[in-house]
Design the sequence.
């Protein structure tokens, strides 16, 4: 299995999940021009050009972060990254994956970290308060989004790593800030971040 990634992009969540589940994968960094070592362009695997993407030895290719994370969770030993299928907790986890994807990643951080006008950036900052408030209330007195660490936590951590660079005041949300600090010390997270940090610095 191959995981296509960019250092400290949202694909960090997939690396964390693979580390947490102790699943083997080959990690392939996607260069700025999208030209992969095998000569293909990354858009042949991920039509929008977004990481992460997973490619199996059998040629199955999957892109879109929440789908990739769900796939990894289902490859992992039962309970390692998810909950029993058809349980309430399982569907709440899927809801959190989509919440992070739509309400934070796309609506807030994409304009702040990508190519956007000043007006679009200001609108994104104004949108941040509501989803961050939801997360602050959810995580008050809790260690994880649900009863144990899941791929939704891996995704949220990857996104919260961008706060300072994007100018999002995580200090205004003490439960979120404490959650991020604690997750960063989790062995799987620390290993994943240590592997990508030198690549980010070299970029």
Sequence:
């Amino acid at each position: 299995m191959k995981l296509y990634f960019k250092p400290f992009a949202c694909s960090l969540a997939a690396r964390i999940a693979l580390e947490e589940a102790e699943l083997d994968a080959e990690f392939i960094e996607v260069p700025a021009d999208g030209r992969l070592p095998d000569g293909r362009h990354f858009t042949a695997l991920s039509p929008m050009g977004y990481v992460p993407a997973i490619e199996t030895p059998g040629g199955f290719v999957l892109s879109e972060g929440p789908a990739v994370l769900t796939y990894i969770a289902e490859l992992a030993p039962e309970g390692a990254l998810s909950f029993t299928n058809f349980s309430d907790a399982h569907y709440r986890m899927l809801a959190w994956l989509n919440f992070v994807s739509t309400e934070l990643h796309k609506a807030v951080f994409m304009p702040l970290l990508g190519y956007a006008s000043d007006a679009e950036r200001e609108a994104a900052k104004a949108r941040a308060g509501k989803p961050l408030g939801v997360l602050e209330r959810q995580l008050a007195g809790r260690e994880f989004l649900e009863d144990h660490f899941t791929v939704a936590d891996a995704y949220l951590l990857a996104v919260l790593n961008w706060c300072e660079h994007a100018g999002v005041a995580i200090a205004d949300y003490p439960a979120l800030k404490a959650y991020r600090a604690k997750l960063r010390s989790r062995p799987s997270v620390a290993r994943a971040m240590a592997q990508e940090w030198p690549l980010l610095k070299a970029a």
